[in-house]
Amino acid sequence: MTRLSLPTLVLRYAGFALLAMAANLGTQRAVLAFGDPDQLLLPAIALGTLIGLAVKYALDKRWIFHDRGTTPLPRQFALYSLMGLATTALFWGTETAFWLLWHSDAARELGAALGLTVGYVVKYRLDRRFVFAVAMTGEDSNETPREGQEQAA
Prior knowledge:
The protein is mostly helical. The protein contains four helices and no strands. α1 (6-32) packs antiparallel against α2 (37-64), α2 packs across α3 and α3 (73-102) runs antiparallel to α4 (105-131). The longest helix has 30 residues, at 73-102. It is elongated.
């Protein structure tokens, strides 16, 4: 099992979160380009969330949790998605609140980015504990090693 140093873990996870945010917000912009934002906001948020979720799952599975398929994919993706429900509610609530307060795309996207950032921190901890624990063979591969242990970058 490859152990990530804390700085490597943080940089990877943050980078993957940014990629997923870009996929999410890019999808939202594409949907919102088709008409009235007041009518298309919920479909835009839903489709953006689905695309962002798929991107983040693929990256996390391989590069954060080093999962090589020990859990059946549909079951694992369902658990991954379930862990994201609370964090998605946080994201949607923040994004929607910023839109309702300021009715501006910039404010909506700022609210989305804020909600996603907080949500990703919470989600990492949930995924580590409940989704990828089997792949990690009962050992938290992303903890910083104890003194005298080797680690890979």
